[in-house]
Every structure is written in C-alpha cells, then in structure tokens.
Specification:
By secondary structure, the protein is of the alpha+beta class. Helices cover about 30% and strands about 25% of the residues. Helix 4 packs across helix 5.
Length: about 200
Amino acid sequence: MKIIFATGNQNKVRECHEILDGLGLTVISQKEEGLNPDVVEDGKTFEENALIKAKAVAALAPQAIVIADDSGLEIDALHKEPGIYSARYMGEDTSYEVKNQNLLDRLAGVAKDKRTARFVCAIAVVMPGGENFTCTGTIEGYIGEEPMGENGFGYDPIFYVDPQGVSTAALTPEEKNAISHRGKAMRAMREELVKRLGDMS
C-alpha cells in the first residue's frame, strides 16, 4: 500500500519512511505523485490545518493513505505566537534569520523562566474510504538569548532544550529526531496505522 505525504519537503518524506520501516508501505510526496491541490489553511489549530491538507490530497487519490503535517513554535511570553502562523510569520518570503531575530528582540530582557516555548507537530491521516485521525507531538524548551547551531532549520537556532542547554540546531539529527515534536507525532501515527492496517487485513 502507498502513503502519499502532502508535502514537497523530501526530508519529511525520508523521516516518515524511516519511522514506518517494516510496515511494507511506500512513502512518496504529493509532488512525486503529480498532485498539487489548491489548499486554503484556514483552520484554527495545527490539527485542523493538517487535516485540511490531508483531505485535499485524499480527494485526488482516494485509494492511497494520505498524511499531512502542520507544525510551529509557541512562545508563552508572546501569547503563543507565532503558533499556527509560524511559516507565514512576518511573511512567507521573510528569512528565518530575520524572523528569529525579531522574536529575540521582542523577548529582550525577559528572564529564562519566562521564555518557555514548545514546538508542536500535528499529523493528520486519511485512510482509503475516508476515515481519518490526527496525532500530535510536542517538545518543551525555551527561547535562548542568541541563535546557536548549524544543523537545524527554521526556528531551531533559537529554541533551546534542557538538560543539554543547547538549541535544537546544535543537536545531531539523530539526537533531535529522538526528542522532536515531529518524531513523537510520527511514532504515534505509526502505532495508529498498525492498528488500522491490522483491522483491514
């Protein structure tokens, strides 16, 4: 059986394939499948937006399992901004270097214990026939005083985790995947898929 991931990010596809290894499922991106639905992400939560994306692709590929994710950064001192607007914060074409500096500037003078934050990832799955479910993973941390690390992307350089006391951009990919919001959500998704595929066999 085939899984279509509603993304153009091959790193996400590869990570998903690794986590689902052993289930006999082929994971490909919507781009590889030649699908490009017009999606309006107007949900109010990560789960709603992930499901909107998954359903849009599933409508074009009803025989496949379709998954989509929506993720972002919540900063408590900024009323959980940028939240579901993380990718669009300050404009989609604005570099993350600029976005990260803006967040650091807005938190200037705020004590470490008030800089709490988390990454959230919601993954939506639409099964053949239309049944759907979502899985959510989070990683708790805080916003550091300055960017650190070269391994990550997006907001990783300013998101720090304890006990390491470093940003997620300073962790190795293996270290990050073991604790990341997306890794947790994908492992939960695997458990749910195993249950459903067992029921279908």
